[in-house]
Amino acid sequence: MYRRLPGRESGLLSYSRLWLGPDHLLLARTTFFSEEYRRFYFRDIQAIVMRKTRRHLFWGWMCAALFGLCIVVLFIGFFDMSGRSIQSSDIVGIIVTGGSALVCLFFLYLNFVLGPGCICYVRTAVQIEELSPLKRFRTAWKVIERLKPNIEKEQGPLAPELLRPKPQAVFAAPSESAPQPPGQATPSTGITS
Amino acid sequence: MTCTKCGAVLNESLLNQSAWSPCPSCSLPLRVEVFPTLFRGPAQVQAAQSVVTEGEASCFYHPNKKAVLPCETCGRFLCALCDVELNGQHLCPACLASGRKKGTLSNLDNRRVLYDSLALTLALLPLLLWPFTLITAPATLFVAIRYWRAPGSVVHRTKIRMILAMFLALAQMVGWGIGFWAIFNS
Question: Which candidate from A33, A47, A166 shows the least CB-CB separation from B38?
Answer without folding.
Answer: A47
